[in-house]
Design brief:
The complex is a heterodimer of chains A (107) and B (121). Chain A is built from no helices and 10 strands. With 107 residues, chain A is mainly beta. In chain A, the strands form 2 sheets. In chain A, strands 2-10-9-4-5-6 form a 6-stranded mixed beta sheet, with no helix packed on it. Chain A has a 4-stranded antiparallel beta sheet with strand order 1-3-8-7, with no helix packed on it. Chain A is globular, with a radius of gyration of 13 Å. The N and C termini of chain A lie far apart (36 Å). The relative contact order of chain A is 0.34. In chain B, the strands form 2 sheets. In chain B, strands 2, 4, 5, 6, 9, 10 and 11 form a 7-stranded mixed beta sheet that branches. Helices cover 0% and strands 48% of the residues of chain B. Classes of the chains: A mainly beta (107), B mainly beta (121). At the A-B interface, strand 4 and strand 5 of A face strand 5 of B.
Chain lengths: 107, 121
């Protein structure tokens, strides 16, 4: 089964700064079937990006996804208050494994 | 509006059986796969498995195969997650999530509110 490794574990940044989150797969993700989610405390995850680079409905353009094969990146161009949360990548090309998560915290 | 509404919180003893539910509305229920995801409090997301409600074809994560059963009732637009014998390590929040688009390999934009299952002696 594909294992997803996210880095860093925690990212300490200030509002307005740029965030770059990494997700590395143990083998190539089929058809780049890779999604990114944001989860705030007490809430279910929210889909941000799918197929590695397509923004989900209603997601602002400060979120962008890139990458292919085994290396993927989520970039948040300018952090807003609601973006301080935990982010997960997930591959859905075979089963549906999630990465371990990256916490974006206020510096 | 698409909604995934899950059953309420449960408190159980080890060894007991349990079935929790997830009801979909606002779309053609048989058309889209539904997944179950576990989250131990304070920890990350774990994909458990998914079901095609049209024919109840299921796919499980190797980590959960044999420990839980996923089923569906098309007439009730509901999917279920069942344990025959709970363990303390099953204490977690369980989410259902509907896939977008037909086909087996599609993302999950629509999530239920979560069901907290507490197992303790």
């Amino acid at each position: 089964d594909i294992v997803l490794t996210q880095s860093p574990g925690t990212l300490s940044l200030s509002p307005g700064e740029r965030a770059t989150l990494s997700c590395r797969a143990s083998q190539s993700v089929s058809n780049n079937y890779l999604a990114w989610f944001r989860q705030k405390p007490g809430q279910p995850p929210r889909l941000l990006i799918y197929d590695a680079s397509i923004r989900a409905y209603g997601i602002p353009d400060r979120f962008s996804g890139s990458g292919s094969g085994t290396d993927f990146t989520l970039t948040i161009s300018r952090l807003e208050a609601e973006d301080f949360a935990v982010y997960y990548c997930q591959q859905y090309g075979s089963t549906g494994a999630f990465g371990g998560g990256t916490k974006v915290e206020i510096k | 509006e698409i909604e995934m509404v899950q059953s309420g919180a449960e408190v159980k003893w080890p060894g007991e059986s349990l079935r929790i539910s997830c009801k979909g509305s606002g779309y053609s229920f048989p058309t889209y796969w539904i997944n179950w995801v576990r989250q131990v409090p304070g920890k990350g997301l774990e994909w458990m498995g998914k079901i095609d409600p049209s024919d109840s074809h299921t796919i499980y994560s190797p980590s959960f195969q044999g420990h839980v059963t996923i089923s569906a009732d098309k007439s009730m637009s509901t999917v279920y997650l069942h344990w025959s014998s709970l363990q303390a390590s099953d204490t977690a929040i369980y989410y259902c999530a509907r896939q977008y688009g037909s086909g087996i390999h599609t993302p999950m934009p629509d999530w239920g509110q979560g069901t907290l299952v507490s197992v303790s002696s």
